[in-house]
Amino acid sequence: MIQLTRLNNSRLALNCDLIKYVEQAPDTVITLLSGEKLLVRETTEQVIERVRDFRRSVLSRTEDTSAIQSGLRLDRTASHPGPSTEESDRG
């Protein structure tokens, strides 16, 4: 979610996946997929940059999580190499 400011200075957090488009006319108008329109104080460029920053942070966390999970898989494999020959012979 990104934080924005309405024209009356109240803050709002917006799920940026719901944005259809953003336009400057002269205030910044955000049109959501539902057709609802929001007027905000931030410029179009600021809204776009906040969306980019949010998406970057999500991707970064996803990459970090994948790296951690890969490390855990490697650790588990090293500490638990699997059944011994005797165990696999038993069935």
Measured between the Cα atoms of the first and last residue, the distance is: 52 Å
Fraction in beta strands: 25-35%
Strand order of the largest sheet: 3-4-5
Helix content: 40-55%
Number of strands: 5
| Biggest sheet architecture | 3 strands, antiparallel
| Rg from alpha-carbon coordinates | 24 Å
- Which geometry do the CA atoms define? elongated
Q: Which residue ranges are poorly predicted, with pLDDT under 50 across at least 5 consecutive positions?
A: none
The tally of structural domains comes to: 1
Number of helices: 2
Mean pLDDT, nearest integer?
Answer: 85
- Structural class, from helix and strand content? alpha+beta
Question: What's a concise summary of this model?
Answer:
With 91 residues, the chain is of the alpha+beta class.
